[in-house]
Amino acid sequence: MTLHYEEYGNDNAPLIVFLHGGGVSGWMWDKQVKYFSEYHCIVPNIQINGSCLPFSIHGYAEEMIELLRVKANGRSITIVGFSLGAQIAIEIISLAPEFISYAVINSALVRPKPITKIIIKPTIKLTSWLTKNRRFSKLQAKELYIDEVYFEKYYKETKHMKSKNIINMLEENLSYKLPTDFSNCKGKILVTVGENEKQIMKKSLSKILEGNIDAKGVVIPNVGHGFSFAYPHLFNQTIEAWINDRDLPKEIRVIN
Fold first, then answer.
1. Of 24, 30, 76, 64, nearest to 48 (Cα)?
2. A Pfam family matched by this chain, by name (predicted)?
3. 178-187: per-residue pLDDT in tens?
């Protein structure tokens, strides 16, 4: 895989890496990049369609670590991931447990169901035409809280995704397990889940907290899968508080 990424902000400031979810790309972090303009922001675009090699969470994490070793040059690194990007973030801090200072893990699935992986290929082959259907894409965008401003970008990207690449991505996403080395991470880890997310996502949050006794979990009220899209200002305030060792916003519920 070859890494594609954009850089924003102050090249000499602490680093924040934003890892997007599946089905979207780096544009999902536009409001975060603008808010954290005093930091050095790195926003990868995870290339699933254009690569001749199968996408791998583990492989992508290894490449990100190599990139960040060059970019950081001794500076503090914060890593923020959503969904697929959150799984990559977990893999990064598991492979390099002393490398990341702060992590914000949003809606990471770590409790795979074997039967789900088995049915991915036939299901996608039967339904792949739906990704080209504008009405269906509208429904999918609504589930992720993607508004009209970003819908055209979302629709353009999803309708051009090849079935084999969607299958590859989903197989990685839906079979991901929490690495045993996750317990060794020395940085501060915040794990979030939406109050209205599926039960398996809430169980995944519990699994992540069990995997590292120093991690903190929070529930975001009145939201499903898409905290940063639904409440960008609250999302930004949460990150800001976390990386500055301040109290988290009162709107979110901390899990004891």
1. 24
2. Abhydrolase_6
3. 999 999 998 9
